[in-house]
Amino acid sequence: MTYQIPRGTADLLPEQSPAWQSLEQHLKDFCYLYDFREIRTPIFEHTNVFKRENDSSDMVNKEMYTFTLPGSKTSLTIRPEGTAGVVRSFVENKLYADPDLPMKLYYLGPMARHERPQKGRLRIFNQFGVESLGVKSPYADAEVMVLAYSILKSLGLSDIRILLNTLGDDESRAAYRAALKDYFAPYVGELCADCKRRYEQNPLRILDCKVDHDKECMQQAPRMSDYLNDESREYFRTVCEILDRLEIPYQVEDDLVRGLDYYTHTVFEIVSENREMGAQSTVLAGGRYDNLIPYFGGPEGMSGIGWALGLERLLIALQAEGITLEDAAGVDCYVMVLDEKARMYAFELLTQLRAAGYQSEMDFQGRGFKGQFKAADRAHAKHVLIIGGREFEEGVVTVKTTETRTQETVAAADLVAYLDGLDADGDDHHHHDHEEGCQCEACRGEH
Ligand code: ATP
Ligand code: MG
């Protein structure tokens, strides 16, 4: 019997976690700057949160992990995306009654979709997303797009492009839908099985089909832009005008419809044009939704806009451009124990070092001098603390400082002050988390 991870899922191993943590911190810092606050919703919801009436998307119809536990009638679905749960919560908790809308929220976490696994496409993947709920203004659209673009630019990505389109309001879409039905009527037979279903349910989806994309009948299909009413056209014009004014580059793609059925008006994607992305080049995608908040029982006419970013895809895009995130800083102190009777004493010093803010590590394996010294080296220790029988008996520690290649024996009681002093002398100012007004030796010199 062997145990293996399920297909299309991945472990985040400790060697990768610094990059993930640094990326997540970066995203959160940006949200702070734009005043978006975190929301956490459950990783499963009642199935009807995702499976809404008339939804024709692949995600809802083919990719959801839906289950019912034995003895229960409740159908639950592991979330395939973040927006539906966030909107459900926004309505259920009456957040729409807040006097200061839009409610600007972000979320981060795993999503599940039963897809064919390939590079940049997993069955469990992580999304970071934002939603701006409750105000329909082109400025709200621009705000989330500027946020998205700024995040990706600030990470150093250069091969990225914003693709932008509008799906218009319900009236415009109904007109377009009718035009598509007329147009595709003679071609339905040539389309893939999914598109035959889409033809009935939502012909807009046909334009998004990866199978039929290159067929001739797709090229001549009616264009959304010809069916927009004045209001929808004006809304989109203003969104574009704001982006122009801010010199945010974008490209209007009038066949961009997006994979989810709930979008209205503005839809957008940010793609990486780096060749290594292959077919999975969309890093971030989103749009406005006029009908979702009312669908969940919120106020009629209340609209929202959001986007989601695939973290795995973003990391592939960063890697493709040679951008690394994690800082490979070493530990501050590595404590070597050279005599078993000194172990308790050493462990106590280790604890004191950590309490003083020094990231510290120690051998538990009882390795010899050479083995421990190599471990200290692998940990890129700034200071190696040597504790043998003599140090134990005299209550001292021998401190070797890697950078300056100095070695000194100091009393255990003075150890932290000694290290603080070294840090204060060096270029590296001390980095433990002492607050303003801290009276430790190093801090007294600074504040
Ligand atoms: P695609 O066209 O690639 O299937 P989508 O339209 O289904 O994408 P969204 O539902 O809009 O994607 O999700 C937003 C982002 O989440 C995508 O741009 C992508 O970065 C990421 N994403 C979506 N599905 C997956 C997946 N199966 N594995 C990894 N990342 C994904
Ligand atoms: Mg998809």
Automatic annotation (TrEMBL):
EC number: 6.1.1.21
Coiled coil ranges: none
InterPro entries in UniProt: aa-tRNA-synth_II, aa-tRNA-synth_II/BPL/LPL, Anticodon-bd, Anticodon-bd_dom_sf, His-tRNA-ligase, HisRS-like_core, HisRS/HisZ, HisRS_anticodon
UniProt superkingdom: Bacteria
GO annotation terms (biological process): histidyl-tRNA aminoacylation
UniProt KW keywords: Aminoacyl-tRNA synthetase, ATP-binding, Cytoplasm, Ligase, Nucleotide-binding, Protein biosynthesis
Record-annotated Aminoacyl-transfer RNA synthetases class-II family profile domain positions: 1-321
GO cellular component: a single term: cytoplasm
Residue sites binding L-histidine per the record: E81, G82, T83, R113, Q127, E131, R258, Y262, Y263
Keyword ATP-binding part of the UniProt annotation: yes
Reaction(s) catalysed by this chain's protein: tRNA(His) + L-histidine + ATP = L-histidyl-tRNA(His) + AMP + diphosphate + H(+)
Leading EC class: ligase
Localization: Cytoplasm
PROSITE patterns to which the protein is assigned, alphabetical: AA_TRNA_LIGASE_II
A single GO molecular function term of this UniProt record: histidine-tRNA ligase activity
UniProt xrefs under Gene3D superfamilies: Anticodon-binding domain, Bira Bifunctional Protein, Domain 2
Family, as annotated: Belongs to the class-II aminoacyl-tRNA synthetase family.
Entries under HAMAP family matching the protein: His_tRNA_synth
Subunit structure: Homodimer.
Protein name, per record: Histidine--tRNA ligase
